[in-house]
Amino acid sequence: MPSTFSQTKKTILPNTTLAMIVRDEEMNPAGGIQRMLKCHLPFVEDAVVVDTGSIDKTREILEELQGQYPHLRVFDHKWDGYGDARNRSLEEAR
Fold first, then answer.
1. Computed over its alpha carbons, how large is the radius of gyration of the chain?
2. Residues 54-83, buried b or exposed e (16+ Cβ, 10 A)?
3. What is the DSSP secondary-structure string of the chain?
4. Whole-model pTM above 0.85?
5. Given this model, what pLDDT does residue 30 score?
6. CB contact at 8 A, 16 and 48
7. Which end of the chain is more exposed for a tag (fewer CB within 10 A), N or C?
């Protein structure tokens, strides 16, 4: 009997933007920025990541992921607190 799992259609959440702020997330103990985004990007229409000054390879990872996910948009923003960075990410959300 064929598996119904292989026939499952990928669901994209309509009118949904993933908005996040990051800094030095290359090797976050929870799994890292690449793992997190690869788990979520296939399911949203839009994605905004605001990098607040990473000094590790976070920015390079984000740029590489932009090549795979054209709906991922990355912005740089000088750190001036969580609220300011959060607001910048929400301003860019569609």
1. 15
2. beebbbebbeebeeeeebbbbbebeeeeee
3. ---SGGGPPPP-EEEEEEEEEESS-TT-TTS-HHHHHHHHGGGEEEEEEEE----SSHHHHHHHHHHH-TTEEEEE-----HHHHHHHHHHH--
4. no
5. 79
6. no
7. N
